[in-house]
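User: Is it possible to get a 3D structure for a protein together with its bound compound? The compound here is magnesium ion. I've pasted both below.
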Amino acid sequence: MSSIISVSNLSKAYGSGFKALNGINLDIKRGEIFALLGPNGAGKTTLISIICGIVNPSQGSVSIGGHDIIRDYRAARSMIGLVPQELHTDAFESVWATVSFSRGLFGKPKNPAHIEKVLKDLSLWDKKDSKIITLSGGMKRRVMIAKALSHEPQILFLDEPTAGVDVELRKGMWEVVRTLQASGVTIILTTHYIEEAEEMADRIGVINKGEIILIEDKATLMQKLGKKHLTLQLQNKLDAIPETLAAYHLELSADGRAVTYDYDTKGDRTGITSLLSDLRNAGIRISDLDTKQSSLEDIFVSLVRAP
Ligand SMILES: Nc1ncnc2c1ncn2[C@@H]1O[C@H](COP(=O)(O)OP(=O)(O)O)[C@@H](O)[C@H]1O
Ligand SMILES: [Mg+2]
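Assistant: Yes, that's possible. Here is the predicted structure of the complex:
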């Protein structure tokens, strides 16, 4: 897949001197769903705002479909639809009017067939004549997406599309995003929900304190995470792991009453059977055990905590 967006060495210092982004490099592939995952204040909205031409970068460059966002602003911007974090809609307009009007803002000629397709993709067709004020929260969000797609952009940015939304609406939104991807739109969403990145994305970028600290295919990431930890509670306190068990790389707890064994759930063998028999041969008795799956949450937390 070729890249549709290329961000290179991008930095942003706000007027106060505060550095919100620091040396961001990022390529978005045509047709993918890319999730930018990071805690509040990480710089997600700043990055999206620069790519969409709303905020000026302090350093670095961005090109969209080969168009530089500063030198070639109009061409770059017309390829993008943006659904901002803060939603605002014209309450008394009809769905059809507000979506058609957004298209006009991009100087594009009327195209009722496109507006119709967008409204149908977003399950808003039967609401096309309703005033926005009469719609549910979930529908209003979909109207915002329809507005962002009105000028036929190839790329859609969704800034925290499900923040503060209940579980059901969130799942509905995920379905909408998949439908849009199937219709050929490249999607970049920001989120601070790990589950959302895990559920939606083809690739995940983790951003923290203005720096991208990890970019990975989701499948690869999940494979790396296909690790489990087996914790064995011991009947008797252990001072040290016996030499005969060195191959298992066990970790002894500080109080000497538990050992932890890491194993790969995707491997041919976990090594648990032989571990248990070798423990017995070493005279170590077990009083209890439990296993824990490491998750995206684990690495996310450890990455974000790292100094
Ligand atoms: N207009 C601004 N002026 C000064 N600082 C800002 C401005 N906008 C955002 N920031 C700061 O930049 C950092 C990143 O913000 P933002 O990009 O909104 O993060 P996120 O979207 O990941 O929550 C935050 O510390 C925020 O306070
Ligand atoms: Mg934000």
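The mean pLDDT is 90. The first helix runs from residue 44 to 51.
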